[in-house]
Structure prediction request, 163 residues.
Amino acid sequence: MTETDITWLTQEAYDRLVEELADREGPTRETIKGRIAAAREEGDLKENGGYHAAREEQGKNEARVRQLKHLLEHSRIGAPESAHDEVAAGKVVTVYFAAWEEEETFLLGSREEAAHASIEVYSPTSPLGGAVNGAKVGDTVSYTLATGKEMSVEIRKVEPYGG
Prediction:
């Protein structure tokens, strides 16, 4: 597994995901099975909207179970080793957009962190996240916007994420 395959999570995010997986593999799965069984008892499955809705819900639940298992297998708790002034997953980054004369502060982290973070979160695989990842305070990096335009940002501050 390479460094780019790893998703870095806080302990809280990891615990939430483990709890969600347990719920989806247990109570949620059983509830859905019950709905399917009840809908089957109603008869003709071709015209049974409740049956089809329950099967669709089952498919979505099983897809999320697979996603959670993969994520948990490929995640680490904490943050990768980096210098104190180096941008890395799990750090709060302040960048300066010279073109707009604006600063923005965000957490470089996973979408699983974004669901519960009190700060904007950018993935290390996003254009901005990928550009700043590994840069140090004082560096200016460029990345390509969805419009094809090139954008530059200066790394102003890097600090650990406090949750």
